[in-house]
Amino acid sequence: MKKLAGKYIVSLSVLIILTSSGCVTDPIIQQTDHVLSNIDSAVTSTNDIEYQNSVLVNAHELNDLADDLDKAETRTEQQSLVKNYITINQRISCIEDNIENSLSDKTSVECQGDKLVSSVDQDGLPGVNTLHDSISGADSEHNKRQILRTYLQDWEYVQRIVRVEKSLHQNKRTHEIILLGGLLKRIHQFPIMYEGEILVPTADMEDLMQDFVTSANKEEQRNLVIEYLNAS
After folding, report:
1. Is 8 inside a domain boundary?
2. Residue 3, class by beta-carbon neighbours within 10 Å (0-12 exposed, 13-18 middle, 19+ buried)?
3. How many distinct structural domains can be found in the chain?
4. Is the pTM higher than 0.85?
5. Which of 3, 51, 82, 108 is the most buried (most CB within 10 A)?
6. Does 56 fall in a domain?
7. Phi, psi of 107 (to 5 degrees)
8. Are residues 179 and 221 in the same domain?
9. Do 71 and 164 belong together in one domain?
10. DSSP readout, 166-219?
11. Residue 168 lies in domain
């Protein structure tokens, strides 16, 4: 048992060293750096940007991405643009690969734990049947991907709305707990975030929460959240 424990400690130590030294790297960081290093030559040659046998940037989208990168003022902004592009690109490919099966099985399209397309129309977004009809009518792969890109932009927007709604509902339930409500209300103050982005800063929470709980119905609550996010 002592020898096994010793081996475990050594293995754990090696993992910690590798992680702290940068040997364990988030794949999307490597992919982002690869795109930024190769986009100029790719635009000239009009070739896809590939990484480890996967297409990161399609040739017909190179110019648009290059234009967006030219407008970015800092390296950090460029990295954020590319990361977002790669993420959307992966989601587009996942939808393309799975929507036929979801149509047959009458299920949603899920990718890496995210429900990208619901089985039915929901929250103002098309469901599997409606989205499938839209992309089936596209006259080219480029147009099909543009339809999916627009869909995913709308999907991201809806996720932010739903995230704020759920957080406010959770806070409301917490504040309503008898006896502990007052204490929890004082300590339960933190921003609402989505994928690392602050949607509602702590300073806005109290006022937004007050408006949310006094709204007459769910429709008014949603309109309040939409108005807040659009103004921020």
Report:
1. no
2. exposed
3. 2
4. no
5. 82
6. yes
7. -125, 170
8. yes
9. no
10. HHHHHHHHHHTSTTTHHHHHHH----EEETTEEEE-HHHHHHHHHHHHTSSSHH
11. 159-231
